[in-house]
């Protein structure tokens, strides 16, 4: 069972292992989310932390929508 979002304090910083437990995901998946910048993290000393506010935003909104790729067509110049 996932943690109740009301128990996450937006003003606190949580270590990655604790956030993985909150989200009920593996630590490896947590590292992947951090690497892909889906969850903002900060480094303090030798450890990474995530703000409670960012954890709550991730719970509420999930993964951000993928960016749309713009297709550019290069057409040859018109011959007159």
Q: How would you explain this protein's 3D organization?
A:
The structure is a single chain. The chain is of the alpha+beta class and 80 residues long. The protein has a domain of 54 residues. 34% of the residues lie in helices and 14% in strands. The protein is built from three helices and three strands; from the N terminus they run E-H-H-E-E-H. The protein has a three-stranded antiparallel sheet with strand order 1-3-2. The radius of gyration is 19 Å and the shape is elongated. The mean pLDDT is 83.
In short, what is this structure?
The chain has a 3-stranded antiparallel β-sheet with strand order 1-3-2.
Computed over alpha carbons, the radius of gyration is 19 Å
- Class of secondary structure makeup: alpha+beta
- Count of distinct strands: 3
Terminal CA distance reads: 69 Å
Proportion of helical residues: 25-40%
Helix/strand order, N-terminal first: EHHEEH
Strand portion: 5-15%
Shape: elongated
Q: Strand order of the main beta sheet, please?
A: 1-3-2
Number of helices: 3
Low-confidence stretches: none
Q: Report the average pLDDT across residues.
A: 83
Give a short account of the largest sheet.
3 strands, antiparallel
Short descriptors:
80 residues, single chain, 3 helices, alpha+beta
Topology:
Elements lengths: L12 E3 H8 L3 H9 L6 E3 L2 E5 H10 L19
């Amino acid at each position: 069972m996932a943690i109740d979002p009301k128990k996450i304090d937006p003003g606190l910083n949580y270590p990655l292992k604790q956030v993985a437990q909150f989200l009920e995901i593996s630590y490896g998946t947590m590292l992947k989310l951090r690497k892909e910048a889906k969850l903002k993290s900060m480094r303090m000393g030798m450890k990474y932390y995530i703000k409670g506010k960012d954890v709550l935003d991730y719970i509420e909104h999930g993964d951000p929508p993928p960016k749309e790729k713009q297709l550019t067509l290069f057409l040859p110049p018109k011959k007159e």
